[in-house]
Amino acid sequence: MDPHTNRDSLMLYLKHQGNIVRKRIVEMLGIDHAGHLGGSCSIADIVACLYFYKLGITPNNFNSNNRNRFIMSKGHSVLAQYAALGELGFFPEEEYKKTKTLNGKLQGHPDMRKTPGIEANTGSLGQGLSIACGLAISMKLDAISHKVYVVMGDGELGEGEIWEAAMAASYYKLDNIVGIVDKNGLTSTGFMKERFDIPNIDDKFKSFGWTVLEIDGHDISQIVDALDKADLVSGAPCAIIANTIKGKGISFAESNPSFHNAALNQEMYFQAMQDIDLLLKETR
Amino acid sequence: MDMAKASIRKAYGEALVQMGERDKNLVVLEADLGKSTMSYMFEKRFPERFFEMGIAEQNMAATAAGLSLGGKIPFIHSFAMFVTGRSCEQIRQSICLPNLNVKICGSSSGLSDFGDGSTHQALEDIALMRAFPNMTILVPVDANQVVKMVETIVTYKGPVYLRINRSELPVLTGKDDNFQIGKTYVMREGTDFVVFANGIMVGQALEAAGILDSQGISVCVVNVPTVKPLNGEEIFLHTHGKKGVVVTEEHNAIGGLCSAVADVLAYRGGIPMRTVAINENFGTSAENYEVLLQYFDLTAENIIKVIKSFV
Fold first, then answer.
1. Do B191 and B286 contact (CB within 8 A), yes or no?
2. What's the CA gap between B23 and B15, in Å, rounded?
């Protein structure tokens, strides 16, 4: 699907797309409107690699069952997904500035009935992996060889339903599920280590029967390799534990618990844009 | 009144198999109670389309949402209490909000699981499900009606909650009787009072009407198998010329059929209404279903008493 003949240019392109996603996230937030900046930026690179390298989802094939699926289980980070969907032409660019408004298509959390390109209603945490299980079973029944990609937060793993789904995915050998954990180490109220730690995420998934890969979630080459490796996993679901930085790319928001769901004042907004423009210069 | 009885849940299990033959997209999910819900019948016939999800109702409900997104028609099963209670939020967020085509079978409903006691007796399930937009709620009166319901909801697109009684109930409808979502069914004509009932309480209401008839009081009995969407127009028409309305159900008076009918009557106005239902209570264990129904006054005698309170 990608027009990039050599790996270096592909990496540069995906890195660029990740930063375009960040720019859109900040645009969607705007000035003085609260929004989930931190968790959207931590998955920007992963979302870019999914939509612009792996998924092959377009407005043209979206209504077909015979394609990959993407479920944003940590629905509060949907701004990153909106950015990718907008770039792919699922809705016109003017929707960005109408995010979270009454007349806009882009809701605060993913809504498949309101936003073109959204696959399920998520955001009440813990349900996305179960939905992915259902899709994965359905694909197996129909002998569809595509995969279901689902992005979860590390804090979200506190939901018991995640582990119910992890058991079911393993029991039914749903090797068409790739579960990506955005391990940014923060929840809405602070650092997980200080508040409610969920240690050894990799061992937990392994003990539930999953194949586990661990990567730097901002290293494009590691993300791409992990997504490719997940294609080869057979007989078990695959978890990619992605070590990320909440707020990545925005200097003042990186690993800062204050920017889970914060409003940017004018100064912050322009600082964020400046930070991203610098990143974009590197990849242009 | 000596009527033939038949098991609703067994008829449900057989209907599911029959519809499974007709529609290859029908899939069945179970949370380890298949021998009670009778989903085991489907498992035996179509093992490749049956999924044991373990004792994990939340995951079962949201997995069904995913199956529906993939074009399947999932039927999920557990006891009424657990499938509506434990997975309540999954039903709201993952199923009703996007209006997905998931069928929820709540079995051993009401007091019908008499021995297991309050933890297992669902007296609030309809209230929970009724609160969610897009949800359709069906309560079969007998083994024939449940078959019609299963046939209907396989082709109806959208979430449905089907409430299944564990015991054998009197057969009050014919095999070829019509069933449509949203219709009410007059089971006995009468001119003085009207009783709206569903499930096991229809039989009790008919018994009460028979006794009252011999005392010169004429009671119309209406089966209301669709609690939601309630056919307000028909409910109102049935009350025309009556001196009072009784609503009876094997459920708390809050949030179920009693509340639904009260909503209609309050809006249209003008006629007194009483209820024969569970009043702000949980269930309890009992040696059989009969004594439990008596303990909670879900009886023909109580319906008679309440109707006479109007006179």
1. no
2. 12
Domains and CATH numbers, chain A: 7-249+265-283 (3.40.50.970)
CATH architecture of the domain with range B185-310: 3-Layer(aba) Sandwich (3.40)
| 8 Å CB contact between A119 and A70 | yes
Interface residues from chain B to A (CB-CB < 8 Å): 27, 48-49, 51, 53-54, 56, 58-59, 61-72, 74, 89-90, 93-94, 97-99
> pLDDT by residue (tens digit) across B134-170?
999 999 999 999 999 999 999 999 999 999 999 999 9
Phi, psi of B206 (to 5 degrees): -65, -40
Q: What was the ipTM of the complex prediction?
A: 0.95
Question: Do the two domains B5-170 and B185-310 of this chain adopt the same fold?
Answer: yes
Q: What is the pLDDT of residues B66-108, one digit of tens each?
A: 999 999 999 999 999 999 999 999 999 999 999 999 999 999 9
* Domain B5-170 bears CATH identifier 3.40.50.300: no
Neighbours of A3 (CB within 10 A): 7
Rounded CA-CA distance B156/B158 in Å is: 6
- Whether residue A111 contacts residue B98, with contact meaning beta carbons closer than 8 Å, is answered with yes
Pairing of strands B168-170, B160-163: unpaired
Of A46, A52, A51, A42, which Cα lies nearest the Cα of A9?
A52
Determine contact, residues B157/B103, Cβ cutoff 8 Å.
no
What is the residue extent of each domain of chain B?
5-170, 185-310
Measured over the CA atoms of residue B118, residue B121, residue B127 and residue B132, the dihedral's sign is positive
Nearest CB partner across the interface for B66, out of A123, A133, A142 = A133
- Nearest-10 crossing angle of helices A7-29, A266-283: 170
CA distance A57 to chain B (A): 15
Q: What averages of pLDDT result for each successive group of 10 residues across chain B (311 residues)?
A: 86 98 98 98 98 98 98 98 98 98 98 97 98 98 98 98 97 97 98 98 98 98 98 97 98 98 91 96 98 98 97 79
- Residue A37 CA to residue A76 CA, distance in Å, equals 9
